[in-house]
Amino acid sequence: MKKLTIIDGGMGRELERIGAPFSQTMWSAQALLETPGYVRQAHQNFIDAGAQVIIANSSACVPFYLGQECYQAKGESLAREAAIIAQSVVQHEKVKHRNKVLAAGALSPPYGNDDPDLFDAESALGIYHALFAAQNRYVDLWFAEEIASIAELTLVQSVLQHAQQPCYYILSLSNETTPELQLRSGESAIDAIDFIVQHGGEGILFESETTDVISQAITRAAERIKRADIELGGYINFSTTTDSALTAQNTSTPSSELSPQSYLVLAQHWYQLGATLFGGCCGIRPEHIQALARWRDSQEPLVAVK
């Protein structure tokens, strides 16, 4: 991927916004199952906003969202359909607008990301392999999403080592600001970064609900991988605390909302710290992506962060 790359935002909330069938239980998988046309429209909305990478709507094609019975019956076929839809949207964009957009496959935590203790390596391996096989023919690159523990990272890398496409890893960090950067499991995020460097990942993105933690992670990672050709990124999961970069720019927002302008300030700050990849999940809408794309396309000077 080219430097300063904008990834899409949260598919689940975008599907809900445009009127797709949606529930907290099935999340974004419900639209894929019942009305796949909405999935296509949500992808297109992010592309129209300026995203250069869309991630297949396969994140919820796991037992945590589908339930074990539905996953066994339809999980793999739904993930395949998600990848096919994403690639068809990308190809349509290429033909219609000569706009190069990439479709990424997703490997997500089989049992959710909120509690790493739910992770079961034995059953997760089979799920990862199934999701990989379902999407691999149709995607241009891979994202291993919301990796909350070393066990998850080790397992998902063992699957992605068979990929011919570039592989990117999204580390899910603790929301607490601590001297030692931690994964959601409490394990060392530095150990996770070192593991990815050793095993040849193309990029590392940091996901947290606390934007100061993402800033800390990008800073530490940039110092750690000076000699490695690995891209870094911020992958925001809504903001529940005020970031020092926002405070410096007087654009801090209530914890229930992160405005597009506030996200732009954060992205510019992270860019200064060494990040080149920007996207997000829950709460990141096409409006946020559009703000980043306008900055990218205008090549305006970066916001000075004191």
UniProtKB/TrEMBL annotation:
PROSITE patterns: HCY (PS50970)
Domain Hcy-binding: 1-296
InterPro entries per record: BHMT-like, HCY_dom
Any Pfam family hit: S-methyl_trans
Protein name: Homocysteine S-methyltransferase family protein
